[in-house]
Amino acid sequence: MSSSSSTNLSLAQRAALHAQHLENQARQALEEQNSHMSSPSDVPTPGSAQQNQLGPSFDANLMLDPFALNAALFPQLPPSTLIHTGERLLKRFKLDEEHQAEFRDYCQTPSAEERDALLMLNILEVKALLNKTLNVKTEEWKPSPQLTKHIKLYVHAIILLPNLRYYSGTIVSAVLATMRFMKFKELPSEDETVQCQGLNVFIGRQVSLFLSDIKALIKSTVDNDDTAGASIRNIASLADSILTKAGKSCPIEATAGLYLRIAYIRTHLRDFDHSNTDFWANVDNGLDELRQGGSSQFAIALELNYDDDVQKYGDPAETEYKTGSGVDTKSPKWLQHLAPLAGQVQRGTKASKRATKRKRIALENDEEENQEGDE
Fold this sequence. Notes:
Layout: H1 3-8, H2 11-38, H3 49-54, H4 61-64, H5 80-90, H6 97-107, H7 112-134, H8 145-160, H9 171-181, H10 193-222, H11 227-230, H12 235-246, H13 256-271, H14 279-291, H15 295-313, H16 333-342, H17 360-374
Helix pairs in contact: 5-6, 8-9, 8-10, 8-16, 9-10, 9-16, 10-12, 10-13, 12-13, 13-15
């Protein structure tokens, strides 16, 4: 371009021409670069003249194999599908920020093996926490003195009810159901597993203690060497002692039905050789055998046993004690609820099903009587 023509151009025109010239040079350089990439033999090597033509910033190492890229420059990316799925699922669960962050870290972990390892570690951590919780001693839970008083009251009442189906059965469940019906605020909620286990253990302990007290009192009247028991052998006196043991707050009264049950228990203590562990289970076995003939035969059997008891230990009608009424509409509300549940108590899972055995002494006496009759 001549100097005269250049002087006739304005500054703007000159700038435009210069820009056009630079654009043409860039396009030419790009075409040359593409032509070298199309032929493997023309790939420039480091330090070659061709590399210098492409510019100092061009790295020929990247052109050797575009499919063998440097792992350091291109790190492995996490599966985007898992990340997006995780974010979508997070919206359906209520997690705090800390646990949301942990979940995102898990989804962003690139290695599937590492994610499996993390998942297993979390499972083991949860298992350890559960084991630690379940191993807490249930005996650590203790009711307040007021709640203890009511638990003992309910336990004593249900055991003395003449319609109690089983002495070694689910008495704890019946007592607890009645207490929840009465809405005791101090009771742990049903979802508090450890506390409820402690509550069941405590109620079961009270059941065992009162059954043991009853058994001891009745047994004392069978033992000829027990002078204290001799004074309460009449079933009316014995029933009064048992009710006294239950406490003044217990609304159960002496009834004909209670006499029948006490007499039946005394028969098992006197005539049968039961172990301490299986005693109440064997009493339940005997009651089940009597029920097989129907309700009428069951009642007759208990009355016949009672008549034998009166012959041995005296008639309660000849004492100062009077019988009262059973559970009716005038009874406390909780007792009205508890009484039907007593008749629905089920056998315990560990109840003994072995046949009851009479004491050897009783069998020997029977044999002696038979020999005398033959003579």
